[in-house]
Amino acid sequence: MAKAIMIQGTMSNVGKSIIAAGLCRIFQQDGYKVAPFKSQNMALNSYITKENLEMGRAQVVQAEACKIEPSVYMNPILLKPVTDMGSQVIVMGEVVGNMKAMDYFKRKKEYIPIIKKAYDTLSQEYDIIVIEGAGSPAEINLKQDDIVNMGMAKLADAPVLLVGDIDRGGVFAQLIGTVDLLETEEQNRIKGLLINKFRGDKSILAPGLDMIYERCKKEVLGVVPYINLDIDEEDSLAETLHQKKANALLDIAVIRLPKISNFTDFRALEMESIVSIRYVEKTSELGQPDMVILPGTKNTIKDMKWLRESGMEAAILKLKNTTIFGICGGYQILGEEIVDACGAEDYGKIRGMGLLPMVTMFESEKTRTRVEGNVTELEGEFQSLSGTKVSGYEIHMGKSKINRNKKKEESDLQEGDFLCIDGNLEGYKKGNVMGSYLHGIFDEEEFRRRLLEILCKKKGITFEIEEEMSYQEYKESQYDKLADVLRENIDMKRIYEIMLENGEV
């Protein structure tokens, strides 16, 4: 069975996922077979595995850091919030239904055998498992029947490293208070503390580190500096979502829908030095971007209502000569009507933005599939995209049908299928508007850069490629950078000793 190390945090967004990813890369570099694990993840950013099963993006990132294929065994339970009170519950990659929070808490015990089986399966195949917790282990209202923090640590008999975020302030209270609120058995599982996102001279922390040890008898094993990294984030608090200013030649505005999902779709675009990605949630922030992207959403109807009520829909429709691109739920929003008769997300129907001649009907069965193909022959401004390779994955509850019975007017001559793979419509375009169900569509280098060339041509500027590094190579460099920083600032010798206390790795 594998050795385990568990990363828990004093609160959400302290950097658990990134620290876990960095340890994954270090262990991989040191020659171990390593895998990530998170028993229960709550996120709107998800991924489809090669088996067409759904899991959280954080464990996909960590699997990449391990240089292994992502698997639902790494994230057996995924909760995708649909409303403020409930979530879609996904177990071992399959949807089991929508549940209110209280209903899910009542059923959590049922999932313990599934979690254990998933963990044991990984444990038999790998040398080391890096386990990530969720939120804080000291949430009193959530401790009963816990399956993701100390409950998981006990299930896996895993030593724990507790992470606090000094950048948000109060890190000493975070760490000491969290340890103090735990039961003695839980306190004993914590083998070390990590302070994350530090800026400045570490020597000024020395008195505080001594006080932490005096108060809770836990040693600080590392002070990790604030790192400028370009690694996928999945949390709704991600700093990426707060980018508001354009500072490059091409200005791309992503509409920050209230239920935005899979915003990691735009990481490859952000890598391009010619591009600024900014997230817009007020009409006053929209301006005159070169491209507007309507991203995925976990509640298409409610987010369409928000677009209309906030005035964002009207502001987008007023834009002149701006390319508009929709992905998944954003693609559905570009159509004429969205109908949810089965309550997949939100019973009812709503008029869409009317930019594509399309009607979307929601169904109770979710589409989950990986897709690879080529763009069809296009006319008009997107013509140079014809034939380019695209790949990605689909995660959606609705199916869209193009209304081909309308009489074509002269202004509609450039409309047509954008992607049609194995007889299934994956996307459509009309004039300067394009949409697709494919998450990750911008990851393909030729498609991404031809699209940027189109935007540059419209703007009257030259598109020049400054970086020859591929997107995959770029991601690898970021994982290596993270590992280097952690090695320099964490006592890895002590972490190995902690894992070795119960035997050899």
Characterization of this structure:
The protein has 505 residues and is α/β, with parallel strands linked by helices. Helices cover 30% and strands 29% of the residues. The chain contains 16 helices and 25 strands. β7 and β8 form a beta hairpin. It is globular, with a radius of gyration of 24 Å.
User: How many strands in all?
Assistant: 25
Query: Separation of termini?
Result: 9 Å
Mean pLDDT: 90
**Spatial extent as radius of gyration:** 24 Å
How are the strands of the largest sheet arranged? 15-13-16-18-25-24-23
**Helix/strand/pairing class, anyone?**
alpha/beta
Helix content: 25-40%
Task: Give a quick account of the main beta sheet: strands, pairing sense, barrel closure.
Answer: 7 strands, mixed
**Unreliable runs, pLDDT <50, ≥5 residues?**
407-413
- Characterize the overall form: globular
Residue share in β-strands: 25-35%
Task: Please describe the topology of this protein.
Layout: E1 3-9, H1 16-29, E2 34-37, E3 40-42, E4 46-48, E5 54-56, H2 57-66, E6 77-81, E7 86-91, E8 94-100, H3 101-107, H4 112-125, E9 128-132, H5 150-156, E10 160-165, H6 171-181, H7 184-189, E11 190-198, H8 206-216, E12 220-225, E13 250-255, E14 260-261, H9 267-271, E15 275-280, H10 283-286, E16 291-294, E17 296-297, H11 300-310, H12 312-317, E18 323-327, H13 329-333, E19 337-340, E20 348-351, E21 358-374, E22 389-402, E23 416-421, E24 424-430, E25 433-436, H14 445-459, H15 471-489, H16 492-500
Parallel strand pairs: 1-9, 1-10, 2-9, 3-6, 10-11, 11-12, 13-15, 13-16, 16-18, 18-25, 19-21
Antiparallel strand pairs: 4-5, 6-7, 7-8, 14-17, 19-20, 21-22, 23-24, 24-25
